[in-house]
Amino acid sequence: QLRRAIEECKRVILALPEQSERQKDAVVRLIHLRLKLQELKDPAEDEPNIRVVLEHRFYKEKSKSVKQMCDKCSTIIWGLIQTWYTCTGCYYRCHSKCLPLVSRPCVRAQVSHQAEYQLSICPESGLDSQDYRCAECRAPISLRGVPSEARQCDYTGLYYCSSCHWNDLAVVPARAIHNWDFEPRKVSRCSMRYLALMVSRPVLKLREINPLLFNYVEELVEIR
């Protein structure tokens, strides 16, 4: 069936106008069909269902149709032809081949062991203090984008490469507590997941951190 589909796909490609969008889509389909055929000819060894890496507890995913991005290499996970895993604690996703390269510990463990927020607003110390390297994977970065663009996380104040910082947006607790500012800011992948896991934890003692806020926000007075 795959061989017949491949031959039919070839005929369709030749019949379609050169460089048209339909022809490009047909070429992509042909590539997927050939990869699937190769996979059947030379099946890989069965991957284990559970893998533990840096306190992540990775489970092999069964979904084939959902389009996901790999948190390690920042490329698409093709569920139809690639094996991939998701951490049940922090929802970190990656290809099977990327598992040995994972360098970010599971933030669920951090939430369990040290459930507290960074309460300084964007505590920047400068790229030089990071030796011009990503705060997470240690890849070389610079503000000029050579060899890789440095992206600042508004939560930690540290700089990350584009693979570890996807410009995700999140409310930063320090800005909310000190300025009552709930505008989402750009944060790294690690910070985004940490903040998502921490959002329902009652760890902020507001009367100790910023008691003056009760004088300006009516809702807080009612809650108190």
Automatic annotation (TrEMBL):
PROSITE patterns linked to this entry: ZF_DAG_PE_1, ZF_DAG_PE_2
CDD domains: C1_DEF8 (cd20819)
Domain of life: Eukaryota
Pfam families: C1_1, RH_dom
A GO MF term: zinc ion binding
Domain Phorbol-ester/DAG-type intervals: 55-106
InterPro entries the UniProt entry points to: C1-like_sf, DEF8, DEF8_C1, PKC_DAG/PE, RH_dom
SUPFAM superfamilies from the UniProt entry: Cysteine-rich domain (SSF57889)
Keyword tags: Metal-binding, Repeat, Zinc, Zinc-finger
Function: Positively regulates lysosome peripheral distribution and ruffled border formation in osteoclasts. Involved in bone resorption.
Protein family according to the UniProt entry: Belongs to the DEF8 family.
Protein name as annotated: DEFI8 protein
Lineage of producing organism: Eukaryota, Metazoa, Chordata, Craniata, Vertebrata
